Amino acid sequence: MRNMRTTTRFMLPAAGLIGLLALGGCSSSVNSDPSPALDTLSQTDFEINNALVLQRDTNFRMLWEDLGRIWMTDRPSRLSPKPIPY
């Protein structure tokens, strides 16, 4: 009977300590933000801004080309590398 009390006296605190460790866990080495430089799934802020600038530049160049067609100031040359519709 005495041996049982000694075992129980050491088992209960050990079980409590194991339970606390299981609930508390260990500190994780994984950062809460594993990809801090990415703003989308695959692009950084710089790449997003670069794409927007390129798109804006393309849109404005197409706008000026369309305005030239509207005001009929775009005399196409026969030497143009692009196909000429007229």
Write up this protein.
57% of the residues lie in helices and 0% in strands. The chain has helices spanning 2-24, 45-70. It has a domain at 38-86. The chain is an all-alpha fold and 86 residues long.
Query: Termini separation (Å)?
Result: 109 Å
Low-confidence stretches: none
The largest sheet, given as strand count, sense and whether it forms a barrel, is: none
Radius of gyration computed on alpha carbons? 36 Å
Structural class, from helix and strand content? mainly alpha
- Helix share bin: 55-70%
**Count of alpha/pi helices:** 2
Order of helices and strands: HH
Strand-residue fraction? Answer: under 5%
Mean pLDDT: 78
Shape category: rod-shaped
Number of strands: 0
Entry keywords:
mainly alpha, 86 residues
Summarize the structure.
With 86 residues, the protein is mainly alpha-helical. It has helices at 2-24, 45-70. Helix content is 57%, strand content 0%.
SSE layout:
Blueprint (H helix, E strand, L loop, with lengths): L1 H23 L20 H26 L16
